[in-house]
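Worked Example 4.2. Read the sequence first, then its structure tokens.
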Amino acid sequence: MEHKASVLENLADVRAMIKRHKRNDTLFAAIGLICLMLGLITLMLLFWQLIADGHPKFTLDFLTEFPSRRAARAGLLSAWVGSVLVMSVTFLTAVPVGVAAGLYLEEYAPKNWFTDLIEINVSNLAGVPSIIYGLLALGLFVYMLDFGQSILTAGLTLGLLILPIVIVSTREAIRAIPVSIREAAYGVGATKWQVVYDHVFKYSYGGILTGIIIGMARALGETAPIITIGALTFIAFLPPSPITTEPPFFNFEWLSSGFTVMPIQMFNWLSRPDHAFHVNAAATGALIIVVTLLMNGTAIWLRYKIRKNIKW
């Protein structure tokens, strides 16, 4: 009887403990949901305020006109073209190097103190403030390599900024691939490169692409490193076209051209005392947020689509 009473008492304690933990889980979930909703509501209100302030400039002329000292005539043409060109250089420099580095560190690099040191530094670089990259680029690209205050310098600077993000996201995507995929490929006689290229990279492509797009979205809105290397705050001309009508049909003079980008143009308009320029800045801010949201949404959609089509 005593043993039975002891068992019943222990069972009651376990039930009470489970009930208490469930109550704590529910409470934590409710607090987390409230915090999430507060953050989302705050962001939505700020975004709505930008749209409300900048909606008079949501016209095609705003995208096709150059900046001007008159707010009514000022446009965003040179800024968004500069952003596209800078992002192109950033993509072409950071993505191949970052993906290749992630594949090497995860699949080929020997596990020793040197690779551990590299991994620690790569992870730490992902959290370094962007202004540090601007100062590094100012000394390395502008003064030491004499690239000047150009599109090439800006693209390389932002490439360095997102390089750790691309490397880390590539490694995380590769780690998510089951070991059985590799073992099955080796079992049928595949080489190391065939396993990596035909299986590991293929199955991790969605996660890698997501990290790349998120990194590019971050680079699009960066201001501090671009200001540090000397981006122009007012520019009323476009760089030379990268494509020409004469052989070899490519022109690289645009890489050494002066430039501005959308965040810099927005900063310039905000610094003006005239309220009409603030309307232009609000429209630019809303445009940057929309593009960033579209890039992140595209990353999520592509990841879902690619993973859905993969047959494990």
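Now turn to a second chain, presented in exactly the same format:
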Amino acid sequence: MDFSNSLIKWYLQNKRDLPWRNTSDPYFIWLSEIMLQQTRVAQGMPYFFAFTEAFPTVFDLAKASEQEVLKLWQGLGYYSRARNLHKTAQYVAFELNGKFPENYKNLLSLKGVGDYTASAIASFSFNEAVPVVDGNVFRVLSRVFDIDADISQPTSRKIFQELALELMPKDTPAIFNQAIMEFGALQCVPKSPDCGSCVMNEGCLALKLNKVHQLPVKLKKTKVTNRFFNYLIFEDEEEKTIIQKRTNKGIWHNLYEFPLIETESEVDIETISIEIVQNRFVENPLLSIIEMNSKAQMHKLSHQNLNIKFWKIEVYGFIEKGINNSLLKTFPFPIVIYNFIEKFLDRKKDE
């Protein structure tokens, strides 16, 4: 089996028409690669178009405020990517005169750019013969060549990188890298791959050994913690409310949210009432507290399960520095809060 030729031939016949494949501009390739980390192509595509329309050059992105960037990123998740994206744009624009480093080694110096992203930009933009190794590549190589190295271990990456480099045609690294990633995304999928129609089926060791569903090996399991968030939706006589910025390190850094009470478990209205009084979120006398969702809404992150409840608190008079619903929607929120705002506002319009 000629792995590389078969792979590239398959790619040329089956590849998707993706906008970042029609350019070698490192800005657009970098933007797409950052967006597609931990994100499916279908989900990332609208964001790519939105960003390239709002920020057609790295200088435009650099000049934007962080709040503008976070707002446009809203819903894509892993918001540290957006913050690093913005900082790197500023560095490239203002320190490097808008020119991205032109090789793998120097690309690694950019904030938010790791081994995979540096390899992708170096090969796609500058035709450097460096292999990209992502989840798709792990899966393809581990199955075709029966590699049972635990991909959760850093040492395993080197095994796959060396194999990919050995297989890569040195004169066409970009197309090889695109091909192997696309093959993993469309053909050699994680569950129930169609091995019968696969161009690699004659030489695939995992298929011969009946190990397709055992590879790749990933032994390390992520520990997931449960957290309980109680968001307080204060509302005064003008239907204005208050929000706050998350300034602590951790999830949703620099995004906005409603005043928050985090508890160790799900709590009742009496506990929330006591917490509101003790924390003095507003100076206004409280008129009522209403549980807006009787069952906590589960929002899953990579390492955390957030159990979220929203509480409406009507207050007497006018909240100092309160904001109306129109202004509220202009701030960047975690998507779970933004969706709540959309639903809540739509409901109020219908009433």
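Notes for the reader: The domain at 3-214 is CATH 1.10.340.30 (Endonuclease III; domain 1). The longest helix spans residues 335-350.
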